[in-house]
Write a structure and sequence with these properties.
heterodimer; A: alpha/beta; Rossmann fold; six-stranded mixed β-sheet; four-stranded antiparallel β-sheet; 10 helices; globular; B: alpha+beta; Elongation Factor Tu (Ef-tu), domain 3; 4 domains; six-stranded antiparallel barrel; 26 strands; about 25% helix; about 30% strand; flat
Chain lengths: ~325, ~575
């Protein structure tokens, strides 16, 4: 793997990147390398200080970047914690296929957790509404998985530029014994000194990508040749137009009565659950095209995520309860 | 997995990539009193620099809350918490990211309420520049001074005095001049360098991104122009190598690597290094990263080092250059910003996290507190929330540090409550203090009284308390908590004839003797005047408040002059 990356850096250098910028005088790290160095510092700090850390792996682009940073932080050793995927069972099939093949390829220890009880009772966003569905299949499931695993720290790929309430979150985000976030009473976080001390039952969510932006993530994926779910790349897909959303269709049974599918060139800007994540019309089938497209966007990345919009401050409410 | 980068059109895209990778980054914070318009300023800055997505703007404009006079309340773009929108104030630091063709920016939008000073300090700790807002209708306030002081303390080298709400005062030049002069006077007191004053209207957007024709008398840059062009200086002033060891990487018996982030200086294979605290020396064998075996590592890179020799080195230790090692000392003085409702009291033991090492430290004395109204030093026997003070600490294991102005990473620490685990305060290390008397005992020399005074950290004294036994009791407790060697003697316990002996003993032992009696008799008076060399503080002469608890404070304040303030010393330096 390391050699493949070196190859990529040489390619980047050949493309006129001043020897990847890293050792050019005066000595200064380029922007992505600076972010990378900070994230690696955070990952190492948490692994050194917590008894049982775990990485929340959502299969999306941010998780892919976080995973690569974990590989870098502990090289030449393997990163010393498992990955946890909270599977709502509403994820896109491409996501699950990617999860299974990629984690196997890098030899990661993967835990998949479902709230089977809620699923058996037929939990779905159509019947319950997104608030309640997320509460059962994501938040509750996550908290159960963390408790079952005895994890005292969980890495998450959330970025502060994603959403207003995330902009308020510390890199080390303290959770009480019920997994709840108290935004008015966060621990002051000065310089790069993190307070990891906990009493029994309490935990910390650690966000190594706090200072990355959506653009940084894409540039880094490009620079580092990081594998991502093919849904991020545009191609013609079978979809149905449902309200303002473009919803990918996997079989005719996905259609509601009266709906008709059509083929549209589209892709996902961010990945979530199938019923709550829409595609965007796009021709961007390579990373440079995606990055160029991103620079022209007038609307935010989470706009296609229903859960952020069901009520003003809804992300904050979910986070208070323990959602990521 | 396919190589994404392969087979791409390289020409135009590589230029774009190059541009983004090598853009400068400026981290800045906003500060100022509540309602000075910080969130509005940032909302405006984001909006006018076209950094707000349409759907985010739409969600703000349809919000139930709008405290502005215009169609859009720009403060709602950053006030991300419900309580903030409802109360119309900023509670916690919000981090915002935006870029212009010239630079990338991270903004720490921090609260103005005194109650949330800790969050202001949080935002300021990583900033290169502070925008201090001054409401033109209210002028320089105590909170402005506090924030300017914290900015100076935390080593922020560029300050913008943004005189806001110029629209409310007819955009008058004399208003701006007067307030800017007030701020420059403050900046002079605080040794703040590189201060620039800009008259603005956050509400109207005047001089934020675009110049305004309402203030043609102002010829300087707009706020954004200044942010885009102000030189960004590296926060590390020191070139001496410091490498705190975060984690030992040990995949198998053949590899033992020390993972960490270079705090300062440059490391190359072959360099001589010294491990602290063991003082063992070795050389760097290799610099290992996932991408390559690197030829050098410098701040702020995260790397893994292997060494030529098997030496004693683990997490929390530090590799340094042997030619220019940090100070190693267990007694030190630091400036503390106190965050917690529970006060800092000398004599208490806290946990401190310094770089990647956690240890126990006792606060041994408060040298002084800074009065935020006058910026003068005043005595204090405890630190309340938001107080800023010079505090002496004694650390259980010696700390390896550099003064903060030379190295932010090795010159700072946080204080943690050992029970609740709350982060209680932030500390900026100034200097080592002389070690307490060591074990190098000279058996032939009698112990001089001055040696005892030095160890106690104060001179002896006699405190006379007449007719207020509770004040005497409270005073003993308060002095004890502050680390004074203190004894309380009641007039009923000692006959006047033996007072002289007691005074002599107190003086030789270095005690603060509190003598509490109902009324001083003439015999007592005579005996007490015999102890001429002992400094006497008569509370009766002090016009104390009638309330017993309230009376303690001024008495304590008067006693601070007994302290022997230790100057910076080179004691404990590693040779």
């Amino acid at each position: 793997m390391a050699y493949a990356i070196q190859g990529a850096i040489q390619q980047a250098a050949a493309a006129g990147l001043q020897n990847a910028g890293e050792f050019a005088a005066p000595k200064r790290l380029n922007h992505l390398k600076t972010l990378e160095a900070e994230s690696i510092y955070i990952l190492r700090e948490a692994v050194a200080e917590f008894a049982r850390p775990v990485m929340l792996y959502s299969i999306g682009k941010d998780s892919s970047v976080m995973l690569r940073l974990a590989q870098k932080a502990f090289f030449p050793a393997k990163f010393p914690f498992p990955l946890l995927h909270v599977d709502t069972s509403y994820k896109f099939p491409e996501m699950i296929a990617f999860r299974d093949s990629y984690t196997r390829e890098i030899g990661a220890d993967l835990i998949v957790h479902k709230n089977q009880e809620a699923l058996d009772q037929g939990a779905n966003p159509f019947a319950l509404g997104t608030q309640k569905c997320c509460g059962l299949l994501k938040t509750k499931s996550l908290l159960d998985a963390l408790t079952e695993g005895g994890f005292d720290a969980a890495f998450g790929g959330a970025r502060r530029d994603e959403e207003k309430s995330r902009a308020k979150e510390r890199i080390y985000s303290f959770r009480d014994s019920l997994g709840q976030w108290d935004p008015k009473n966060q621990r002051p976080e000065l310089w790069n000194i993190f307070n990891s001390r906990l009493n029994k039952g309490e935990s910390i969510r650690v966000f190594p990508l706090s200072n990355w932006t959506e653009l940084d993530i894409w540039l880094y994926i490009h620079m580092e040749n990081i594998p991502i779910v093919p849904l991020y790349f545009a191609r013609e897909r079978e979809v149905v137009l449902r309200g303002a959303s473009i919803v990918p269709i996997y079989s005719q049974s996905d259609l509601l009565p009266g709906e008709k599918s059509q083929r549209i060139s589209c892709r996902m800007r961010s990945l979530g659950c199938m019923p709550c994540t829409g595609a965007i019309r796009s021709e961007a089938d390579t990373l440079p095209k995606i990055i160029r497209e991103l620079l022209g966007f007038k609307r935010s990345e989470r706009e296609n995520r229903v859960i952020d919009h069901d009520e003003e401050g809804s992300m904050e409410l979910k986070k208070r309860e323990g959602y990521f | 997995m396919s190589l994404h980068a392969a087979n791409e059109q390289k020409d135009g895209f590589s230029t774009l990539l190059d541009h983004h990778l090598h853009k400068d980054m400026l981290r800045f914070t906003t500060a100022g009193s509540v309602d000075d318009g910080k969130s509005t300023l940032i909302g405006r800055l984001l909006h006018d620099s076209k950094s707000v997505y349409e759907d985010q703007l739409a969600s703000v404009s349809k919000s139930r809350v709008n405290r502005s006079s215009g169609p859009i309340d720009f403060s709602l773009l950053t006030d991300g918490l419900r309580a903030e929108r409802e109360q119309g104030i900023t509670i916690d630091v919000a981090y915002r990211y935006f870029e212009t063709p010239r630079r990338k920016f991270i903004i720490a939008d921090t609260p103005g309420h005194e109650q949330y000073t800790r969050n202001m300090a949080t935002g300021a700790s990583t900033a290169d520049l502070a925008v201090i807002l001054i409401d033109a209708t209210r002028g320089v306030l105590a909170q402005t001074r506090r924030h300017a002081y914290i900015s100076s303390l935390l080593g922020i080298r560029n300050i913008v005095a943004a005189i806001n709400k110029m629209d409310l005062l007819g955009y008058r030049e004399d208003v701006f001049r007067r307030l800017y002069d007030d701020f420059l006077a403050l900046a002079g007191q605080l040794n703040l360098e590189n201060v620039v004053g800009i008259p603005i209207s956050a509400l109207e957007g005047g001089n934020l991104v675009n110049a305004t024709d309402r203030m043609l008398w102002y010829q300087g840059p707009t706020l954004l122009e200044h942010l885009e062009t102000v030189p960004v200086r590296s926060e590390v002033m020191q070139e001496a190598m410091r490498f705190p060891v975060q984690y030992v990487v040990r995949p198998d018996a053949d590899f033992r690597g020390f993972a960490g982030r270079v705090a300062s200086g440059t490391i190359r294979p072959g360099d001589a290094v010294m491990a602290l605290p063991s003082q063992q020396k070795s050389r760097v064998r290799s610099i290992v990263t996932y991408d390559e075996t690197a030829a050098e590592a410098f701040s702020p890179m995260s790397v893994t080092l292997t060494l030529e020799d098997e030496i004693d080195l683990s997490r929390g230790d530090m590799l340094v250059t042997p030619e220019n090692p940090p100070t190693v000392a267990s007694r030190l003085e630091a400036m503390v910003v106190w965050f917690d409702a529970e006060p800092l009291v000398p004599g208490r033991t806290y946990l401190i996290k310094h770089s990647v090492r956690t240890s126990r430290a006792k606060a041994t004395a408060i040298d002084y507190r800074v009065n935020m109204n006058t910026l003068e030093q005043e005595p204090a026997y405890e630190l309340k929330m938001n107080d800023i003070a010079a505090v002496q600490f004694e650390v259980a294991k010696p700390l390896f540090f550099d003064p903060y102005e030379r190295n932010r990473t090795t010159g700072s620490f946080i204080l943690i409550d050992p029970l609740s685990n709350a982060t209680l305060g932030a500390a900026i290390i100034r200097a080592a203090l002389p070690e307490a008397a060591g074990l190098d005992t000279d058996w032939n020399t009698p112990v001089a009284a001055e040696e005892k005074y030095r160890r106690h950290g104060h001179a002896p004294a006699l405190v006379l308390v007449e007719g207020r036994p509770l004040v005497a009791q409270y005073l003993e407790r308060a002095l004890f908590a502050q680390g004074f060697e203190v004894a309380l003697v009641s007039g009923e316990e000692v006959s006047a004839g033996r007072l002289g002996e007691l005074l002599a003993l107190s003086q030789s032992a270095g005690l603060v003797l509190i003598y509490s009696t109902n009324a001083i008799s003439s015999a007592e008076k005579q005996a007490l005047s015999g102890g001429a060399a002992l400094r006497t503080i008569d509370l009766a002469s002090m016009d104390l408040p009638a309330d017993d608890e309230a009376a303690v404070s001024p008495a304590i304040a008067a006693l601070q002059s007994l302290r022997i303030v230790a100057g910076p010393a080179d004691a404990g330096e590693v040779n």
